[in-house]
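Rotation project, supervised by the postdoc (A.L.). Task for the rotation student: set up a whole-complex structure prediction and record inputs and outputs verbatim in this book. Inputs entered:
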Amino acid sequence: MLKVLLNGCNGKMGQVVSKVAKTYEDVTIVAGVDLNTTRNFDYPVYSNPSQIQEEFDVIIDFSLPEATLAILEFAKAKKKPIVIATTGFTSEQKEKIVESSKEIPVFWSANMSLGVNLVADLVQKAYKTLGSRFDIEIVEKHHNQKIDAPSGTALMLADAINEVANNAYEYIYDRHTRRKKRAQNEIGIFSVRGGTIVGEHSVIFAGPDEIIEIKHTALSKEVFANGSIRAAMFIKDKKPGIYNMSDLINSM
Ligand SMILES: NC(=O)C1=CN([C@@H]2O[C@H](COP(=O)(O)OP(=O)(O)OC[C@H]3O[C@@H](n4cnc5c(N)ncnc54)[C@H](O)[C@@H]3O)[C@@H](O)[C@H]2O)C=CC1
Ligand SMILES: O=C(O)C1=N[C@H](C(=O)O)C[C@H](O)C1
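Outputs recorded:
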């Protein structure tokens, strides 16, 4: 039985992970951490990791960057693996996560769906085929409760392109203040927020007289919850290091 500690258990994703975990015979959530301890779960919820008494195998984190860093310290102290799904980290926070992976296994992905990982491969292929003759723009759409912008996934897809483009691209988040034509080395990244949109990412390659658009639409939060549980199963017995959805998919 895989014993999970869930950080951010009372959030939108935390609640979905709690529900989805019940559909796995060999997974159980033994405790949760959340500043908001008002809701009742069938496991104890603590406002601070230091209060946790339960034994656990792996941490799943859907919270806020500051909360992720706090639970990361706890994971290191307990020498336990962690699945980080939270987004919106600063560069300094990202460095701390990478540094921590020298001590414990860290599964880190801004998008826990299998499909977005395929999209990352496809945009790399598109870039290699189309090259710099096509302008690249990314549009992401999410629900009106999302705090960070642009989405972690949009940045992940831009980084995937930059990886095969020798980091040639600069990211532009706002054209309003720029009174000039776009430069060839730009990737525009734009955020739409509204209603209950679960998550949409479009990568647009606009060239002379033709446009290619590679799009992923998440239809439910369950897709992310299932991905995080699979990631927890995958990382349980791994050595310290950084792991992502590609590692999980390649192991299937
Ligand atoms: N990687 C992926 O596939 C996905 C990532 N996300 C990311 O997961 C994060 C959470 O998303 P939602 O659940 O929609 O947000 P949410 O705002 O509904 O939930 C965040 C939860 O964290 C709790 N929290 C705040 N401070 C805390 C602390 N110090 N310790 C423990 N818990 C604390 C809040 O009380 C809240 O319950 C976001 O960064 C979002 O972008 C969301 C969906 C999929
Ligand atoms: O906040 C969300 O909801 C989501 N956040 C992730 C992101 O920032 O990329 C992943 C997913 O799109 C849902």
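Student's summary: The helical segments are 12-21, 65-78, 91-100, 114-130, 152-164, 222-235, 245-250.
Supervisor addendum: The chain has two domains: 2-108+221-250, 114-218.
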